[in-house]
Design a protein that fits this description.
The structure is a single chain. With 99 residues, the protein is α+β, with helices and mostly antiparallel strands. The protein has 3 helices and 4 strands, in the order E-E-H-H-E-E-H.
Length: 99
């Protein structure tokens, strides 16, 4: 049995039934918070993080291959489904609000 949560037409969490409803809600909230914060700086990620050095001029320019949208999608897969039994750790519920 699988649970799929949809919000605004996109899958946000895909989890096995081994998680309780509270755990699913907490995981979804953390993932949404991370997405919200990353979406705010999407342009900076694309123009200042995903760069490559041009061979002749040795200038750093935004990548034509690596883009924020793909990174976000990959993070979703790693945080919710994982690969080879490993997931990207997105934090846990803590009283001080830090993820």
């Amino acid at each position: 049995k699988m649970k799929i949560i949809l919000l605004l037409g996109m899958t946000l969490l895909h989890a096995s039934s081994g998680l309780s409803t509270g755990e699913i809600n907490s995981e979804m909230q953390r993932l949404l918070y991370i997405y919200f914060e990353m979406d705010r700086i999407e342009n900076e990620i694309d123009t200042k993080l995903f760069l490559y050095e041009t061979p002749l001029e040795s200038n750093w320019v935004p990548s034509a291959i690596y883009k924020y949208a793909d990174f976000r999608e990959s993070l979703y897969v790693m945080a919710t489904e994982g690969v080879a039994g490993k997931k990207f750790y997105i934090g846990e519920d803590v009283t001080n609000g830090h993820v």
